[in-house]
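Let's study a protein:

___
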Amino acid sequence: MTKENPVYFKLEYSESIESKKDILSTEVSLLNLIKYLKRYNSLRTEEFKVKSQIYGAIKKMNLNMRKTQSSFPFLKIPNVIKRDNITKKEIPKEKFDQDLESELREIQNRLASLG
């Protein structure tokens, strides 16, 4: 192995003071960063706890809603009645369309007889 020869260089007093200030300010910044990261982690764990509580409450509420809905009476409508309602709704539309067409024919006949 070869021996490493250290390199030395001279700093002025003002440069050394400035370098020390920079190093200390960097340390302060790192310590603040660590403090913020710890705070962030604690907030994330608190958020996780709150989210899990909310999830549990929603799950419980859904269960209560299902129980309540199951206790309500359910009215079953036979398919025959449903079909009757559908046909009754369609018939007036067709009659209305037929009425319009018949009126249009009558008006056209009158115009043809006049013209």
User: Anything to note?
Assistant: Helices lie at 13-71, 79-114. The CA atoms of residues 9 and 16 lie 12 Å apart. The chain has a mean pLDDT of 83. DSSP finds two helices and no strands in the chain.
